[in-house]
Structures are given as structure tokens and as C-alpha cells.
Amino acid sequence: MLNKKIMFVGGGLMAGGIIRAMALKQAINPSDMLVYEIVPERMKKLEEDYGVTAVGSIAEGVAQADVVLLALKPQIALSVAEEVKAHRKPGSFLFSICAGLTIETLSEAYGGDMPIVRTMPHGFSQVMQGVTGVCFGATCDDEVRQVSRSIIESFGSALEISEGQMDIFTGFCAVGALWVMHMVLPLRYGACEAGLTLEEAMDLALENLAGTVDLVKASGEHPRVVCDRILEPGGPAVRALNSLEKNGYYAAVVRNVKAGCDRATALS
């Protein structure tokens, strides 16, 4: 169990998912998760559901915290910097999940002596899965790195990347999850057109996705190899794959991912 106090500056969807995961996994004493959230109903729910400690101000929380977990929109994240700098506990570090804010920008706002950890969770923290991209500022020592990894591994796994790759990671993860969800919808409607009910089609689509992920991971092989092994000459699968190719599926996915990455870069 992590023997640190974490101050969540913001208790929205992503922060709430991390809090939930850490509480369910018993990665930290719930009362050691301090939260400041401006929406009273959201704050009350986090208290009731997970036993976190609500604080009345950012200053009150950061004065006690070993880790300041920044979970705000980028423009708001910079506006609270002075309050954090004025009241933060000596030796604490900043753990940011704010999209687009570079280590340099955060360091300028929060002070060069405060170690900065920049992360981008994959979005699956609520189900304790997914990969979080992480990069460390120059002043991050071994303890900061270890604590950061402990936090991340409570709701998934960590992938250390260079900061130059963070926009690509952000764009790919955001687009990738949405693309998969949007793939479920036409699978559902296509199966319904073929004769299944919408409920049956949804169940099968989700099971297909989950089973495929497990199959590829278990095999350790390239997806193309696994795919080729499933195909039968003249069968329905090869006909469907050829139809996908004819309709430009692969090129559309590549353009979609690239568009997300380009937008993430533009926003940073």
C-alpha cells in the first residue's frame, strides 16, 4: 500500500476513475486521497463512495500532500499554480494528467524546483485497464518515479515515453478507443440487418472484440498471422475482409488516427 498523501486537484471523470481504481485495489488508504472539487454533488459522491477526504481549498490539500495530482482543464490548471506554489508541502511533486501541458510549461507555472511528472491515462482507469503514457521532468528522482509508477499501476500499466511522443500517444489513445466503440455500432447494425436482434448483435460484437484481444495476446503473433489462420478459402470471413478493403477501411483508420494525433499536437 502506498504510504503517501495524494491531493487530487479536480474530481472529474478521469480523476474519479483513478480514485475508484485506487480504492478498489486498496493501493492507498482512502483517507489519504485528498480531493478538491468545485461541484459539491461530485465531491459528496466521491466521499460517500470511496471514503476520500474532502478539503475546502487547494491550499489546504497541497499543504498536506506528497503528490499533487493535477486533473483540470489546461487553462484552469495553469490558473491555480500560484496557490499550489504558495502552500505546497516541501518535497512534494506534481503529477499531471492534463492534456497538452508540457513539462516546460508546467515547470514555469509551478516553479522549477517542483518535480513534474506528465502523464496521459488511456481512459480505462475505471476498469483498471489500459496503458498510461508517462514522461519525467529532469528533477524527478528515483522515489518520484517509483511513486508515480505505483499510482499508475493501480489502474493499469505504465509506458515511459519521450515527451516528443506524448502528443502521438494522446491522439492515438483518444482516437483508438473511440474508433473501436464506433466499430461496434456498424457491427451491431450489420448483424441486425442479417437477422439478429440488436441485443443479440451487441452481445456478439462485444464478445468478438474481447475474445479477439485475448486471442492475439495469448498467441504472441502478429494479428495478420492470426487472421490468416482463421480464414477459409471461399468462406464468409475472406469475403467480408475483401469488402472492407474495397471500401477503404484500412486507409480510413490510418487517416482517423493521424487526425487525432495532429489535433493533439496543435493543442499542446
What would you say this structure looks like, in words?
- The protein has two domains: 6-161, Rossmann fold (3-Layer(aba) Sandwich); 169-267, ProC C-terminal domain-like (ProC C-terminal domain-like fold, Orthogonal Bundle), CATH 1.10.3730.10.
- Helices cover 56% and strands 12% of the residues.
- It contains twelve helices and eight strands.
- The protein has an eight-stranded mixed sheet with strand order 3-2-1-4-5-6-7-8, sandwiched between helices.
- The radius of gyration is 22 Å and the shape is elongated.
- The model has no long low-confidence stretch (mean pLDDT 91).
List the helices and strands and how they pair.
Blueprint: E1 6-9, H1 13-24, E2 33-36, H2 40-50, E3 53-54, H3 58-62, E4 67-70, H4 74-79, H5 81-87, E5 93-96, H6 103-110, E6 116-120, E7 131-136, H7 142-153, E8 157-160, H8 166-194, H9 198-219, H10 223-230, H11 236-246, H12 249-267
Helix pairs in contact: 8-9, 8-12
Helicity level:
55-70%
Classification by helices and strands: alpha/beta
CATH superfamily of the largest domain: NAD(P)-binding Rossmann-like Domain
Order of helices and strands: EHEHEHEHHEHEEHEHHHHH
Question: How many DSSP helices?
Answer: 12
CATH fold-level name of the largest domain: Rossmann fold
Number of strands: 8
Largest sheet: 8 strands, mixed
Q: Calculate Rg over CA atoms.
A: 22 Å
> What is the CATH architecture assignment of the largest domain?
3-Layer(aba) Sandwich
Question: How much strand content do the residues show?
Answer: 5-15%
What's the shape? Answer: elongated
Query: How far apart are the termini?
Result: 34 Å
How many domains? 2
Low-confidence region ranges: none
CATH class of the largest domain: Alpha Beta
Mean pLDDT: 91
